[in-house]
Specification:
Layout: H1 2-30, E1 38-42, E2 45-49, H2 53-59, E3 65-69, E4 72-77, E5 82-95, E6 100-105, E7 108-112, E8 117-132
């Protein structure tokens, strides 16, 4: 009797563990890579970490103007909305009047709103493409 009871519980328990595990793995495999991207907003600034190449192509990022600079700290006012794609580097953005800050770096697509005042502190030399909204 013990053998059949033990055998029965294995027949029920094993599939109840294996089937959900296999379904989870299949679901992860079928998910598009774009769903893994991370987008968020902080102090009104939109940041997208490592956007897909298709989005960068659609925006025409490679046709935008290029700016680069080494370590520095400068105040900056955005007179118009500015979208930038950082190719390399690291910047600490200090938001004037808020007491807050955040960092952006290579691979980030960032949109700063018109009228925003910041201090731009380059921590590691930056190279970026940028576009100004008219």
């Amino acid at each position: 009797m013990t053998t059949s009871k033990g055998s029965w519980s294995l027949k029920v328990v094993v599939p109840s563990i294996i089937v959900p595990l296999l379904l989870s793995l299949l679901f992860l495999k079928l998910m598009p890579k774009e769903t893994a991207m991370k987008s968020y907003e902080i102090f009104g600034v939109k940041i997208e970490k490592n956007p897909p190449q298709s989005k960068l192509t659609e925006l025409g990022v490679t046709t935008w103007k290029t700016w680069e600079g080494g370590p520095m700290k400068i105040p900056w006012s955005f007179e118009t909305e500015e979208t930038m794609y950082l190719l390399k580097g690291k910047v600490k953005v200090i938001v004037e009047g808020s007491g807050g800050s955040f960092e952006i770096g290579g691979g980030d697509l960032v949109v700063f709103p018109k009228g925003m005042n910041i201090t731009w502190e380059v921590i590691e030399a930056v190279r970026k493409h940028y576009s100004l909204k008219n």
